[in-house]
Structure of Sulfur carrier protein FdhD:
Amino acid sequence: MSQDTSLLQTPLAFRQGRFVSSERAVPEETAIAISVNGSTHAVMMATPDHVRELAIGLALNERIVDDLSQVERIEVEASELGLDCRLWLAEERARTYVARRRQMTGPVGCGLCGVESLELASRDLPVVGEGATLSPERIVRAMDEMSGRQTLGARTRAVHAAAFHDAEGGHVVTREDVGRHNALDKVAGHLAEAGVDPAQGFLTITSRVSVELIQKAAVMGVSLIAAVSAPTALAIRAAEGAGVTLVAVVRGDEFEIFTHPRRVEGAL
């Protein structure tokens, strides 16, 4: 179960024409530095829970490693400035990482920042496998499954969530964070540690669909992602090219399919 990373605040609220005392839970936001073999890879603002999963998911989704066996150990240490998360790679993989670092100008907390060229920013994404075919009802139910597990979101109304669902079963994991890409990285990290194949299910997210979310889903091998909000045009093009079914604007029992509708029963 997630630790409570919210804080209770007492703002002065203006309601029904007058000022009154109020209480509101707000999410904690902490600087998290992720280093790889002693070299800082990213510094990001994130919700300080499931930090190990965040680091593993980021390493997998940014293709620092191909699988968890290439990570020898992970250390998380707290300081007055935030959290320091250190990944140590196996020797052979470490050499590959050093070569890649020579192509980068700075930390890459979002997966795009600090990349030296437009060619490197336009990631060469794998084409996902066929995956499962889902009924419209399964997609709608998955959103409800995620919503019911957004404990931090229910307290604060200030964080994003991402979830993974087994196409044949039910909900597997939900993770929350102030950053939507952080929430998805935490999901990826959980699946890796649990030995769950992402290709055997699908993703739901609470945010708009930006291109980095499609990139992460494609690298994970997930064939369908469903979102509460709308996608960007670049995200649609990336999903089309990677073979990902992009379902968005899921509201109640209605939604819109932007790419590869064959994986939704009745769409074709």
About this structure: Residues 102-120 have pLDDT under 50 and may be disordered. The chain has two domains: 30-121, 136-263. The helical segments are 51-61, 91-101, 118-121, 136-147, 151-156, 180-194, 211-220, 233-242.
